[in-house]
């Protein structure tokens, strides 16, 4: 990706350098709801297995629930995120950033409920307690930087911060200080450490 690609317009809320895979799992944002938050998640399907197409299948309602015993635990889930960043840094977009993806569930950030209404959800392929790849941090920082040019994003939080006690991702292996350094944002844009 060239530096100029970061500045390309997001037509209809779609990042021009992401591979587009449309998910049906989204809805409209509430009227006058500004996108001010990025929520970082982690996912792998089955847990700890990387590189397959199961995440794409889950987010497009095409996952074979009988293909792995773990899938029975999530059978029937209709979920999505705006973006997934694979282990090699590949960026996939499932939902327009203009729309409300179904990623955070019951959630609250700094006294404001329903984070899906005002956030962009980004999934990193990985597990909560395993290190993420340098390429993922690079893509994540570039994506957040580009998104901030189109939306009034003020903060970044983890799923664990907006749904404490219910979710643990991206988890203790995620390097918040590294993301802060890559973005060059002040500490109050991130969860307290």
Structure, explained:
The chain has helices at about 55-60, 135-150, 160, 175-185; strands at about 20, 25, 35-45, 85, 90-95, 100, 110, 110-115, 120-125, 155-160. α2 (about 135-150) crosses α4. The chain has a single domain, classed as Peptidoglycan recognition protein-like (Lysozyme-like), CATH 3.40.80.10. It contains four helices and ten strands; from the N terminus they run βββαββββββαβαα. By secondary structure, it is α/β, with parallel strands linked by helices. The termini are far apart. The mean pLDDT is about 95. It is globular and about 45 Å long. The longest helix has 15 residues, at about 135-150. A six-stranded mixed beta sheet has the order 1-5-4-9-3-10. Strands 2-6 form a two-stranded antiparallel ribbon.
TL;DR?
This protein has 4 helices and 10 strands. It has 193 residues and is of the alpha/beta class.
Largest sheet: 6 strands, mixed
H/E element order:
EEEHEEEEEEHEHH
- Give the number of domains: 1
Instruction: Give the N-terminus to C-terminus distance in angstroms.
Output: 32 Å
User: What would you call the quaternary organization?
Assistant: single chain
Predict the CATH topology. Lysozyme-like
Structural class: alpha/beta
How much helical structure, as a percent, in the residues?
A: 10-25%
Largest beta sheet: what is the strand line-up?
1-5-4-9-3-10
What's the rounded overall pLDDT mean? Answer: 96
CATH class: Alpha Beta
Identify the CATH architecture: 3-Layer(aba) Sandwich
Low-confidence stretches: none
E-strand count: 10
CATH evolutionary superfamily = Peptidoglycan recognition protein-like
Beta-strand fraction estimate: 15-25%
């Amino acid at each position: 990706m060239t530096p100029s690609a970061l500045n390309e317009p997001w037509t209809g809320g779609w990042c021009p350098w992401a591979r587009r895979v449309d998910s049906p799992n989204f809805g409209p944002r509430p009227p006058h709801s500004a996108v001010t938050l990025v929520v970082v998640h982690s996912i792998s399907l089955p847990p700890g297995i990387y590189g397959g197409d199961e995440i794409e299948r889950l987010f497009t309602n095409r996952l074979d629930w009988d293909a792995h015993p773990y899938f029975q635990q999530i059978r029937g889930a209709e979920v999505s995120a705006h973006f997934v960043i694979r282990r090699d840094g590949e960026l996939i977009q499932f939902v327009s950033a203009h729309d409300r993806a179904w990623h955070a569930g019951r959630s609250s950030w700094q006294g404001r409920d329903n984070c899906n209404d005002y956030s962009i959800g980004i999934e990193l392929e990985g597990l909560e307690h395993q290190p993420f790849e340098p390429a993922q941090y690079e893509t994540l920082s570039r994506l957040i930087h580009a998104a901030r040019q189109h939306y009034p994003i003020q903060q970044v939080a983890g799923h664990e911060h907006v749904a404490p006690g219910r979710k643990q991702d991206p988890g203790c292996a995620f390097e918040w200080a590294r993301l802060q350094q890559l973005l060059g944002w002040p500490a109050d844009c991130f969860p307290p450490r």
